[in-house]
Every structure is written in structure tokens, then in C-alpha cells.
Amino acid sequence: MHDSPAPPRPPLTRDRFVAHVLAAAATDARIAGVLDYGSTSEHRGDQWSDADLVLFLRAADIAAFERKWETWLGQFGPVLLAYICGLGKPWAVLDALPLPLRVDFNFYPDTELDRILEWPCAPASVEAMVLYDATGGAITERVAQIVRQPLGPADPAAAFSQVSGDFWYYALRTWAKVLRGQRLVAQHEFTAIMLANLAALLRLEAGATERWRNSSAVQDIEQAVSTARAAAFAECFVRGEADIERAFVAAVRLAQSACQSIASRHGWLWPTELAAQVVALEMRL
Q1: pTM value?
Q2: Which helix (H) or strand (E) holds 207?
Q3: What is the tens place of the pLDDT at every residue in 139-194?
Q4: Which run of H or E residues covers position 94?
Q5: Residue 131 belongs to what H/E stretch?
Q6: Which DSSP category does 154 fall into?
Q7: Among positive and negative, which fits the CA dihedral 147, 148, 152, 155?
Q8: Which of 196, 208, 209, 270 is deepest in the core (most CB within 10 A)?
Q9: Distance CA 60, CA 37 (A)
């Protein structure tokens, strides 16, 4: 007689992956806790969300675990990618449905539980973040302190100073690259830096800063600001190789208007003269 082949595993999904991790943690003495520090802990996740997991590990075991984390991960499903990302964190992609599943890990020793108190996270509940706690409640007690914590800027005036300063500094830097003929790098800095800071200015103007410390300013910008501001922001994106000048002019005009609105409301200072000179650059086109 021949042994029957093992039944095929059901396709991996995000929920199944997390369930596999928790089942493995329950029988692995090295693992002191598993936490969800991503959007799903704030009830904002969906089927397209990645899995953002913190594993607290026994301090004596963490070095060995980190050396073989890819092997440990392989027990849960086909691993398409596993590497240390530019942030120094273990990232992976597993074969799953409806898309390959992105997994962002952080591994910390169980001697550093107080890290939790510094995280810019606002879980909807303890249960939404704490998936497994083998510390006798020490993890749970700390997470309870950050449930629904405010994530707005600690000092709105300082946030405005930094964001407006970054916008106008990089506006001048981007324009210098345009003048040098470095159009590709100019487009990159314009999109990645200038528009990110412009979105932050629009959020400050609208008072939409609830998730300032843990989210991209561009995330859901259409719902965060007025319809007119959202439409004006959309006009700031580069639409082709020859479009950087038009987009630049639209962005600096919008930023100047937003800065003036914020400053007049709160009495905050910003680089008005630099902005005027940058906006005047359009006269040289």
C-alpha cells in the first residue's frame, strides 16, 4: 500500500499567514510576543494590506533567530522574496492571494518592551495589536497605554516651520537642477520631496493632522482637504518629460497660498521673501 499524498494546502491569504505565525509562536519558546503594528491594528486594513508584525524574542535567542529568520518564515508558505531592506528591517513576500503578500518584520529582544510606548501607533484596541503575549501581560500592559493615542504633531508651529522650510528649500534646489538640465533628478525630487511637503502644508491648512506621525501626508489627501485644494494639488503632478516647469509653477503658487493661509490664522512665521523669489521664477520661463 502506498501512503496517500497529503492534501494540498489551501491558498495562503493574509489572515491564514497570521494564523500560521501565531500557531508557531504558541509552540516556540523563543517567541515572547507577536504584535500587529500596521494599518490593520487601527481597523484600516483590507485585502491589499501587508502584514506588519513585531516579534519580541527572548534576548538569549534573538541573534540565532535573526540568522535563520528566512528558514523560519518558509514554514508558512512559498517565499518569493526575503531580504534586509534599506531601513535595516527583515522584509519578505510570500506567494498568496489575492496578491503576493508583503510582510514587514521587526525583531526585538524581550528586554526592550518599553519600545512600545514610543511607537507612533494608535491601535483601535489592545486586542487589535497584541496577537500573542507570553510575557505574563507585560506586552499587553504597555500596548494599553498607546490605544487610540493622538498622532497629530506634538508642536504644530514647529511642524509648520519644518515643512514650509523643507518645501521652499527643495523648491530652490529642484529649480537649480532644472536649470542644469538634470531633468530626471529634478522630477524625482519634485515628486518625492516637494509634493510630499506640499501635501503636508495642505493638511496643516485643513487641520487634517490626526495621523501626522504615522502616515504619508499624501495618503487620502482627496478626503483630507477641500475639493478645490485637492484639484489644485492634482494639477501639480508632472505629466511628461517636458512638464516639470508647469508643474513646478503650480506647486509653488499653491504652497505660497497655503503658507499665507496658515500663517495668517496662527501668526506663525515662514520664509515669505524666499517664497516670493521662488514664485517669481516663473517670469523667467
Answers
A1: 0.89
A2: none
A3: 999 999 999 999 999 999 999 999 999 999 999 999 999 999 999 999 999 999 99
A4: strand 90-94
A5: strand 130-133
A6: S
A7: negative
A8: 270
A9: 24
